[in-house]
Design goal:
Chain lengths: ~270, ~270
């Protein structure tokens, strides 16, 4: 079951807030930025911010809250981060400690929220720029791999770089690089192309996949930095509490994707 | 022997005009746009312009003259196209008919000049954007191939697409695509990456090379549209007279490369 595409971002958030939608947000409110979320205690927040800044392709910061404030008005006037995502993952001392559909009971005066771009709107961008996404036509999706690349350590956070792979024909690969380079807030350009073994990836052994993804002989695998990298950074840094979006259950914002073109992390939104 | 790098574009043109420099312009006036040149009779000029517009990666138009006017003030106040290139190739009925160091005796009232971007300043752009050009460090240069891709036929002009190949490591390939996409006037982004056979290229059989160029196992070949494509289009269209720059003997302009960033063909220059 997929989220109702016809709802506006605000209407979808209202439905989520009331408990009317608890599923993934893939396909919901197409054309609007969806964000990954990470909420940490103030004592670890500046370290996490430093790591995000050092790794803009992993976690391009779109907005951050004040300590204790669950709102992010830059992304939607009504947003309440305690209720407006359809699913959350709670991490204690770096380890996943269960899911929740709201986090009002976990909220604290010292929690700081960070929203960063994800690749959920990626295919939108690629299609708009004329990239032929043959893997979608084949009924396939991107695959996620753990690479031997490392994120840049900063502020007590670090760890291996997780990458998402999409296969494209060469001319489409070039168009995809051009297109995604224009969207630094959606992970930007790929980090690798064409030589999986060079970054420690065995294409047959994905970390997770949303469906089988093969690379035909006439296509090249492209690898983008993936937000799942954040989970491993949290595991390594082990803050006493961290709340993230549940996988595929994103914060749906009021920001139309075209407004993000050429905008840099933390540049401020229109 | 290489052209004197220390001269300004205007001083270099003055040296060329006086006969003091008749060699290639590679390395001359670094950081300034060098242009390919094609001069055709007015009767074929609009057809050629249409073909350039249909193939902006092959022949991105930077400036065009009025019929009979050998000046291009947008590229340099003093430019006289009859004398300011160190070498010309004369084509009659599409066939090369010799070289010249000036073309005052060939000039006619109906000739129209077209200047378009070339890849001579390419390496400048790539180095400025942090691309590691290992082939230069190995003492190698780009290689030129005839591909099975075709330019888009228009105005009586057409023919096969000639491509220039540079090998880069994957992360540098991505950076190079991002960087060159920002310079549509210098051929823009590549037309192909990674699968030479898919565009009919045998890497061991270049059309021409400025030194041996290999592709190590950890690098990918990138292919950009090459201005040599114009020579084949002229051969096919066979105008009674066409004068081009002699290979590697370019029009050196007053336009600094950074001013070209994000500028489109015919957009007008600063």
């Amino acid at each position: 079951m997929t989220a109702p595409a016809a709802l506006s971002p605000a209407a979808l958030r209202a439905a989520i807030r009331s408990g009317g939608w608890t599923g993934p947000t893939a396909g919901a409110a197409p054309g609007y930025l969806q964000c990954n979320l990470a909420i940490l205690p103030a004592g670890r927040a500046e370290g996490f911010r430093a790591w995000c800044r050092a790794n803009p392709r992993v976690s391009p910061l779109v907005a951050a809250g004040e300590p204790g404030d669950p709102r992010l008005p830059a992304l939607g006037a009504d947003i309440d981060l305690r209720t407006d995502l359809p699913g959350y993952t709670v991490h204690r001392n770096g380890e996943p400690a269960g899911h929740a559909e709201s986090i009002g009971d976990l909220w604290r005066d010292d929690l700081v929220a960070f929203a960063f771009g994800c690749s959920f709107s990626f295919e939108d961008v690629l299609l708009r720029e004329g990239v032929d996404l043959r893997y979608l036509a084949r009924g396939e999706r991107e695959a996620i791999y753990r690479s031997t690349l490392e994120s840049e350590a900063a502020g007590g956070f670090g760890g291996p770089l997780i990458v998402s792979m999409r296969p494209l024909r060469p001319a489409d690969a070039i168009r995809a690089i051009e297109a995604t380079a224009r969207y630094p807030l959606a992970h930007g350009a790929p980090v690798h192309i064409g030589k999986p073994a060079a970054i420690g990836v065995d294409l047959d052994r994905p970390l997770e996949t949303l469906g089988r993804t093969g690379v035909p002989d006439d296509e090249l695998p492209l690898f983008w930095a993936c937000g799942v990298t954040v989970e491993l950074a949290i595991r390594q840094a082990a803050p006493d509490l961290c709340i993230t979006h549940r996988s595929a259950h994103m914060l749906v914002t009021d920001i139309p994707m075209p407004a993000l073109r050429d905008r840099m992390p933390e540049e401020g939104l229109p």
